[in-house]
Amino acid sequence: MAGIYVGSTAGYSGKNMVIMGLGLKFQKEGYNVGYYKPVGAMPKEVAGKLGDDDANFVQGVLGLEEDPAEVTPVVVTQDFKVKAFSGRCEDLMGKISEGYAKLSKGKDVTLVAGSGSMYSGKYCGVDGVTVVKNLGIQSIVIDRFQKELNYDYLVVLKEALGDNLMGVVLNDITPNFLDEVENLIVPFLNRAGVKVLGVIPKDPLMGAIKVADLAEKLGGKVISAQHKAERIVESFLIGTMQVENFLTHFRKNKNAAVIVGGDRSDVQLVALEGDSPCLVLTGNLYPNDIILTRSEVLEIPIIVVRDDTFSVAKKMETILQRHKLRDIIKIKQGAQLVSSNIDFEHIKKSLGLK
Predict the structure, then answer these.
(1) Phi, psi for residue 222 in degrees, rounded to 5
(2) Beta-carbon neighbour count of residue 180 at 10 Å?
(3) How far is the C-alpha of 252 from the C-alpha of 267, rounded, in Å?
(4) Which of 39, 108, 138, 290 lies at a CB distance of 3.0 to 4.6 Å from 166, suitable for a disulfide?
């Protein structure tokens, strides 16, 4: 009954991607895979039972149909937090241990999903470090590159987990940072006793979002070429500069939505003619008839939002960083990234699997 707890240094670091990638790989090699998410922060009722939204989704991808309440015995609702902060925590770890014993029975390997960071849930004694130690299983910790890596955090986790830390995965590494990661950070971590199981390069598709979903999250409305709202946005540009300067940046960014004031028809036209996946017009200003007509002819959607350009750009940055892994194409790509970049043989050996 081998078990791996997949945690991370922060939320939205790629835990689901790694779990699904490992799960599908284990299944492909003929292993009987179990899945468990002891603490869920996204309450969802399934067939009258309270579970976790992410756990429900991952179960579906892995073809599992366990009781959602058993897969996630601790669900963080508002009522739960009120009790926990009032010092009325029940024996949550006992419940988690019982659930793991039941769901891991008869499985070759059970993937245990973390929630938030490795220390999330410390206020009620169900943080990742505590769960790993109590269950007596191995752990893999993901550190996602966001301006820098949390290498100090990883060394501290090694001290906290000891032999229970199988290794770490460095995720979303940009091309310009790859050399520093491979030649400086990986050797440093290895010297500190932290095994680097893989370095996953940044893939724009993994953070992409459909135009229709983007409009919903921005609180906006698609006003033209609605039939093309399935187009994919991978990044964004802000069209506040002069057209000549904007063109230089625009040509370097594929699949970039253009955030621009509703009164900047010059930039809007350049973005449309350059095949941007969509335009996001700010300030609740609608485009003129020429822009609307070109949008329909070129089949490029236009989203109109109320917020100012700066606010929309901040929202876009968060959305692209935190958009959930839900589309089939992303799941396949994520599984491929995991399979290609993580030392699967080392993982099997550490778990005692043949």
Answers:
(1) -80, 115
(2) 12
(3) 16
(4) 138
Indicate the angle between helix axes 15-28 and 328-341, nearest 10 degrees. 80
Structure pTM?
A: 0.83
Is the domain spanning 2-203+325-351 CATH 3.40.50.300? The answer is: yes
Query: What percent of the chain stands above pLDDT 70?
Result: 97
- 149-158 residue pLDDT tens: 999 999 999 9
Question: What value, to the nearest 5°, has the Cα angle with vertex 142 and ends 136 and 146?
Answer: 155
- b/e map of 188-213 (b: 16 or more CB within 10 Å)? ebeeeebbbbbbbbbbeebbbbbbbb
What residues have CB less than 8 Å from 13, skipping those under 6 apart? 142, 143, 144, 171
Q: Write out pLDDT tens, residues 116-140.
A: 999 999 999 999 999 999 999 999 9
Residue 254 pLDDT: 77
Q: For 305, which DSSP code?
A: -
Helix (H, G, I), strand (E, B) or coil at 199: strand
Q: Per residue in 307-318, pLDDT tens?
A: 998 999 999 888
Helices first, then strands: H and E counts in the chain: 16, 17
Q: Virtual CA dihedral for 55, 59, 61, 64, nearest 10 degrees?
A: 180
User: According to the model, what pLDDT value does residue 325 have?
Assistant: 58
Residues of each domain in the chain carrying CATH 3.40.50.300 = 2-203+325-351
* 14 SS3 class: coil
Q: What is the mean pLDDT of residues 194-212?
A: 91
Distance CA 202, CA 178 (A): 10
What CATH number does the domain located at 209-322 have?
3.40.1390.20
Tell me the two tokens of residue 67: 């009781």
Say what percent of the chain tops pLDDT 90: 72
Does 293 have pLDDT greater than 90? yes
Strand pairing report for 43-46 and 49-52: antiparallel
Residues of the chain with CATH 3.40.1390.20: 209-322
Q: DSSP assignment, residue 148? A: B
